[in-house]
TrEMBL record:
Upper lineage: Bacteria, Pseudomonadati, Pseudomonadota, Alphaproteobacteria, Rhodospirillales
Native species: Roseospira visakhapatnamensis
Keyword Secreted recorded: no
Cleavable signal peptide: none
Name recorded for this polypeptide: D-xylose transport system ATP-binding protein
Keywords: ATP-binding, Cell inner membrane, Cell membrane, Membrane, Nucleotide-binding, Repeat, Sugar transport, Translocase, Transport
InterPro entries noted in UniProt: AAA+_ATPase, ABC_carbohydrate_import_ATPase, ABC_transporter-like_ATP-bd, ABC_transporter-like_CS, ABC_transptr_XylG, P-loop_NTPase
Gene3D superfamilies xrefs: P-loop containing nucleotide triphosphate hydrolases
CDD domains: ABC_Carb_Monos_I, ABC_Carb_Monos_II
Matching SMART domains: AAA
Pfam hit, one: ABC_tran
Length: 512
């Protein structure tokens, strides 16, 4: 009898003649947490799609051994019956349905007459949520009532309701706060106690180090190795992932800072549902040419709402006074913002950054499409020339610019969104969580790009939930808390995470 719950042997998967996986091996023991690491586009998600039959047996070569027997699954339902359940990076919940209805979607509990037994489903869903220490969640309410962290745990409850023996978590904390992340990591530790194995995919190597028993690394579709975490360090994992040492995670480069370019005054945003509540309360700041302004704050501080207002995208009542190069401008729509030279890479790439039905190239040129118009027609030769240049410049990994942008990994999608927002040649670039869901190698490339843009005199506003990132690349840090400015610090080498957090948690003194 094998010691392993799962063995994947020499897995090969091709797309249009291009090998996405080229001889990958993976082993998982019962109750073991295996970290699966690799750069964006390395093949991690593809390998898990092979395992979970998103790519069914017959579309790839190699062998999967499950509980000592060959597994030749041609449907997702077959792998789930075997006990292999995947929780995708993009949540697969129906907002209008209740928590219980989502948990049992496709496996509804019915009475003898064929009528759905909501009482039984709610009771079972409540037990599952209690197991996850989430008893306070009302399983009868629509999932739209809950935040990202709770939604992630609902997805896991849904998976456990399928009697999972192996749970695959793909970037489970990419949209979670620090406290929500701690809850999820404790949950994974609890799964080990129940002998449920886990494949944990994450670019956050501190999580891999904290929770994983072994680590497997893939690079460019090839298997680099699998070793106990006790024999590895974060630096060793990075070296395996990128094939080179990253001496400095934040490649600070000298750049000149000029005069004030972007002068923002009195940003105020009201909650779209409850207009009496302010999400952003009278925030003002300036950014100079070539300056990188990092904006830090806890989850819910109002950073994203402020960015949306500056870009003309905020849906609720709001007001803002913007001066660009000393001249007051009106920004009521994203088109207004881009026309004035204010471009933005949004926090939610899937909802606001890409058009899923369009190709990679079409997404890149979307913001400057009129540039290629000739007598009512698109000059495709000129457009494709620009697309090719941007794909090369951003090192976007793709077989063809004609492929749907959803065929790219998350990091390569992010690079395409950045390329789209650079084509209008911005004076101001707003980056909201620019490296969310991006691996260490791609992060390094994005940081170097940011410094290159600063050298060109572009004023950069960068929001990030990762304080080391804010400190690593910002010239100045603006701290937001409960929608108000709580600190404005020059990042001169003495600024610390503790000082930023203290500012974020300290309420502004009210005038007497």
């Amino acid at each position: 009898m094998s010691d392993y719950l799962l063995e994947m042997k020499t897995i090969v998967k091709e797309f249009s003649g291009v090998k996405a996986l080229d001889g990958i091996d993976l082993k998982v023991r019962p109750g073991e947490v295996v970290g699966l690491c690799g750069e964006n586009g390395a093949g991690k998600s593809t390998l898990m799609k092979v395992l979970s039959a998103v790519h069914p047996h017959g579309t790839w070569s190699g062998e999967i051994i499950w509980e000592g027997q060959p597994l030749e699954a041609r449907t997702i339902r077959r792998t789930e019956r075997a006990g292999i359940v995947i929780v995708h990076q993009e949540l697969m919940l129906v907002p209008e349905l209740s928590v219980a209805e989502n948990i049992f979607l496709g496996r509804e509990v019915a009475s003898r007459g064929g009528v759905l037994d909501y009482e039984a489903m709610n009771a079972k869903a409540s037990r599952l949520m209690a197991d996850l220490k989430m008893s306070h969640v009302n399983v009868a309410l629509p999932v739209s009532h809950y935040s990202g962290g709770i939604l992630q745990l609902i997805e896991i409850a849904k998976a456990l309701g399928k009697n999972a023996k192996l749970l695959i978590l793909d970037e489970p904390t990419s949209a979670l706060s620090q406290s929500e992340t701690r809850t999820l990591l404790d949950l994974v530790r609890g799964l080990k106690d129940r002998n449920i194995a886990c494949v944990y995919i994450s670019h956050k190597l501190e999580e891999i180090e904290a929770i994983c028993d072994t680590v497997a690394v893939i690079r460019d579709g090839q298997f680099i190795g699998q070793a106990p975490m006790a024999a590895l360090t974060v630096d060793k994992i990075i070296h395996m992932m990128v094939g080179r040492e990253l001496k400095e995670k934040y490649p600070r480069e000298p750049h000149a800072i000029g005069e004030v370019v972007f002068d923002v005054r009195h940003v105020t945003c009201h909650d779209p549902i409850n207009p009496d509540k302010k999400k952003v309360d009278d925030v003002s700041f300036t950014v100079r040419a070539g300056e990188i302004l990092g904006i830090a704050g806890l989850v819910g501080a109002g950073r994203t709402e402020m960015a949306s207002a500056l870009f003309g995208h905020y849906k609720g009542p709001h007001s803002v006074d913007i001066h660009l190069d000393g001249r007051r401008i009106e920004v009521k729509t994203p088109q207004d913002a881009v026309s004035h030279g204010i471009c933005m890479v949004p926090e939610d790439r899937k909802r606001h950054g890409i058009v899923p039905l369009l190709g990679i190239g079409q997404n890149i040129t979307l913001a400057v499409l009129p540039r290629f118009a000739r007598f009512g027609l698109i000059d495709e030769a000129a457009e494709f020339s620009v697309i090719g240049h941007e794909i090369d410049a951003m090192s976007i990994k793709t077989a063809s610019p004609l492929l749907a942008i959803t065929s790219l990994s998350g990091g390569n999608q992010q690079k395409a969104v950045v390329a789209k927002m650079l084509l209008p040649k911005p004076r101001v670039l707003i980056l909201d969580e620019p490296t969310r869901g991006v691996d260490v190698g791609a992060k390094y490339e994005i940081y170097k790009l940011i410094y290159g843009l600063a050298k060109d005199g572009i004023a950069i506003v960068m929001m990030s939930s990762e304080l080391p990132e804010v400190l690593g690349i910002s010239d100045r840090v603006l701290v937001i808390g409960d929608g108000e400015v709580r600190g404005d610090f020059v990042n001169d080498g003495t600024l610390t995470q503790e000082k930023i957090l203290t500012a974020a948690l300290t309420k502004r003194r009210q005038a007497a």
